[in-house]
UniProtKB/TrEMBL annotation:
Name of the top EC class for this enzyme: lyase
Database matches in CDD domains: ACT_CM-PDT, PBP2_Ct-PDT_like
EC number in record: 4.2.1.51
GO MF, one annotated term: prephenate dehydratase activity
InterPro entries hit by this protein: ACT-like_dom_sf, ACT_dom, Chor_mutase/pphenate_deHydtase, Preph_deHydtase, Preph_deHydtase_CS
Catalytic activity line of the entry: prephenate + H(+) = 3-phenylpyruvate + CO2 + H2O
Organism: Kiloniella laminariae
Residues annotated as domain Prephenate dehydratase: 7-182
Protein's UniProt name: prephenate dehydratase
Pfam families reported for this sequence: PDT
NCBIfam families given in the database record: PRK11899.1
Organism placement in taxonomy: Bacteria, Pseudomonadati, Pseudomonadota, Alphaproteobacteria, Rhodospirillales
Amino acid sequence: MTDVDHIIAFQGAKGANSDLACHAVFPEMESLPCYSFEDTFAAVHEGKARLAMIPIENSSAGRVADNHHLMPESGLHIIGEHYEKIEHRLLAPKGASLAGLKQVHSHVHALAQCRKFLRAHNIEPVVAADTAGAAQQVAKWNDPEIGAIATSLAGKIYGLDTLNSEISDAEDNTTRFLIMSKDPIDPDPAKTKVMTTFVFRVRSVPAALYKALGGFATNGVNITKLESYITDGSFSVAQFYADIEGHPNARLVRLALEELSFFSKEVKILGVYPANSFRDRGMAAE
């Protein structure tokens, strides 16, 4: 039996992009496929895996909405981030041709990221639970009119041919992943650039969000991501997800968070972790 300390969980089947991300960051660890994101979080919480690799947003398709809701209640902490270049290959059973394809199955985000190609070739997109799972199912059907959008690894695992090696609408298609653990870490800001991720709810008063975020402006704390989403059926309660640069114990960040807390019902830090070097490329391009 493999030591739990050497297992990292991900959502999807073997060969999914999340699986590739696991091996890219932790080549020495064994990846554990999970049916749903809930199962992925539970695998760590229940001691079946030490870490989880969770996609949070994609440069083409936007945020992975489920995880914004699940992370705050998961009991896990963000300990790192990873940016994975996404490859979308058109896979099909051996002997199939692009001209003969009528349907392509894949995850909803993968289909969204390949809209132009599918429309240009008049191929019907069909939503599946995940990319690698779609490849597995297409291999089982063995129908030359049905293909899948998945990784080259999935094609190799499930014995499918590659009809087109890259069908993404955007050349720089990238997914940001968060690495999560039961135990938080406390990176030294003197040694590495630090990111802090948290969620909060503002009080239901005029200009509450403006006032809550004012402390970040006055203290010079950079907010790199801010999103809101509804948390109840009344559509009256909005929760905000934010990434900022800096450690919560740093004076200016501490002051900004204190001001945020004053105007918020709840502030919950999800993780303090080293910034990925991929962020430096974005700054250099500006």
